[in-house]
């Protein structure tokens, strides 16, 4: 990055077309082919785009991933990311603003990178805002090590719909103050390292049952309801030096004079509500414009990009038709509108210069911080009349259901207790059932194969039937190492005790084992309400 004086001089060189180019933040993919990399380099040179938003691969981008395209994993993703950022920056005449979604760390997008707990896990913390601050700080350090300026997080949606297919575990919870306070701590931790943030998904994606990657959610609430609840974290955080707001693809008629158009292309919602009524002065960035909620409705190349800009977005994220978008905006836009967005973007870039990124640092080891969060978030969700200390080794069996992997939970327990344990990944359900008749009590460990709720978290029907049968016929204690919404699939009223561990990290499993042994507390509290099956 150049110094501030050189940067100020560069600003004076821009033509109006180049200023429009600065509005665009196309996607960059870590696992692109050399041909695809060169195509993006050409776009950077020819269109003078302002930045790039990095994703793992074209197949893993959400709109494609739901189509079950094969994802090729790259063990060297972090190294590849650093090299690509350096290469693209070298290609650009004017420095690029590099963004990424790293809500729970770079692991959200790349392999072999530090991962921190999901927002729903942090939502279970009672106090401990210092730990959330450290999460934001550590993630920012990792982003800086790669050459990234902008973590497009946190999510400040209030997750008040248990059927939400896309926010869920990404939200701090269903209480507006909880969401605001925890997001504030995360943001301050991020900013302490000079990294930019963006609160999302305005005006609130929490109360939806549609994934906006795939369709346009409709929120039929009054403006007062939305103002008092969904908009509350946004309103509070806008007074805290927030750099940017990301606008989601949501149909919210009450905020758009009855119009059902997506909020991301609604003048009423962006220029009217966000800018004029709420007084936001920072950068407005669109959610990814390739998402089916809007992309499918506007097949003419450049039309969606123009509508998004005209509605009030300064940065057009994941715009797929950059060249056509620039031409359409130049044809239709008022020069003053272009200048205003360019100035906001330039101020954001100047902020990154003051906090210049130096790549090459080591990634932060998350173990110590995750260990503290594991102990503070563990949640006793339900407890029956029977007592787990009545477990008798000869009648007690451990059963693990879900994704394969080392079972640190049972291994840690086996250091103290002698008991038999099995996994559905290594032993058939039929064979496990044959060993159950003499076992009165089960310790059931659930490891959901997927954190998203689609396809029942990828649990097989046979596995869910088996879990239900065990819960219904045995004295069962259940430890859940994953998304709490899994419990909505089960007859949980029949379970003796349910402990939500949230994550399957080794330190979370080990802490859960100590809890079972009576050596650790469960001070956490679930931050959402589950539907009872």
Question: What key attributes describe this structure?
Answer:
globular; alpha/beta; 533 residues; six-stranded mixed β-sheet
Overall outline: globular
Helix content class: 25-40%
Low-confidence runs: 385-391
Question: Into which percentage range does the β-strand content fall?
Answer: 5-15%
Q: Radius of gyration from the CA trace?
A: 24 Å
Total number of helical segments? 21
Global structural class: alpha/beta
- State mean pLDDT (0 to 100 scale): 92
Overview of the molecule:
With 533 residues, this protein is an alpha/beta fold. The chain is 38% helix and 12% strand. The chain has 21 helices and 15 strands. The chain has a 6-stranded mixed beta sheet, covered by helices on one side. A 4-stranded parallel beta sheet has the order 2-3-4-5, with no helix packed on it. It has a 3-stranded parallel beta sheet with strand order 6-7-8. Strand 2, helix 3 (34-47) and strand 3 (51-55) form a beta-alpha-beta unit. The radius of gyration is 24 Å and the shape is globular. The N and C termini lie far apart (55 Å). Residues 385-391 have low confidence and may be disordered.
What's this, in brief?
With 533 residues, the chain is an alpha/beta fold. The chain has helices spanning 4-11, 16-21, 34-47, 62-65, 77-91, 119-123, 129-146, 176-191, 223-228, 232-237, 267-277, 292-295, 303-311, 322-332, 335-354, 367-377, 408-414, 429-434, 454-457, 461-473, 506-516; strands spanning 24-25, 27-29, 51-55, 97-100, 150-151, 199-202, 244-247, 283-286, 316-317, 379-383, 396-402, 420-423, 441-447, 475-480, 497-500.
